[in-house]
Amino acid sequence: MAWVNVARVDEVPPGHMIKVTVDGDDLAVYHTDEGFFATSDVCTHATASLSSGTLNGCIVSCPKHGGKFDVRTGAAVALPCVFPVETYPVEVRGDEIWLDV
């Protein structure tokens, strides 16, 4: 794994998320009250973009069927999703967001 700079902190305001692409993989970066988190951007149920959904606290809702994931752990927490999404370590270095991908 290698650390990659993916965004500036000001690009992801609290309560928001963005999609970034690293080596051809779409990832979602979330800014919650608990800090920054990152997961695969692809829903494990219907391959929709999670960053196009909604973020409520640490729970992201898929825009396609409403399944939900905990962005801290990747765990599926609401049907129809049953399989977790992959998570990635996040570090904030100054005003930059770095992911270990």
Automatic annotation (TrEMBL):
Q: Does the keyword Endoplasmic reticulum apply?
A: no
Q: Which InterPro entries match?
A: Cholesterol_7-desaturase, Rieske_2Fe-2S, Rieske_2Fe-2S_sf
Q: Which domain of life is it from?
A: Bacteria
Q: Which molecular-function annotations from GO does this UniProt entry contain?
A: 2 iron, 2 sulfur cluster binding; dioxygenase activity; metal ion binding; monooxygenase activity; oxidoreductase activity, acting on paired donors, with incorporation or reduction of molecular oxygen
Q: What is this protein called?
A: 3-phenylpropionate/trans-cinnamate dioxygenase ferredoxin subunit
Taxonomic source organism: Alicyclobacillus macrosporangiidus
User: What positions does the domain Rieske occupy?
Assistant: 4-99
Query: What SUPFAM superfamilies does its record include?
Result: ISP domain
Note the PANTHER family from the entry: 3-KETOSTEROID-9-ALPHA-MONOOXYGENASE, OXYGENASE COMPONENT, IRON-SULFUR DOMAIN CONTAINING PROTEIN
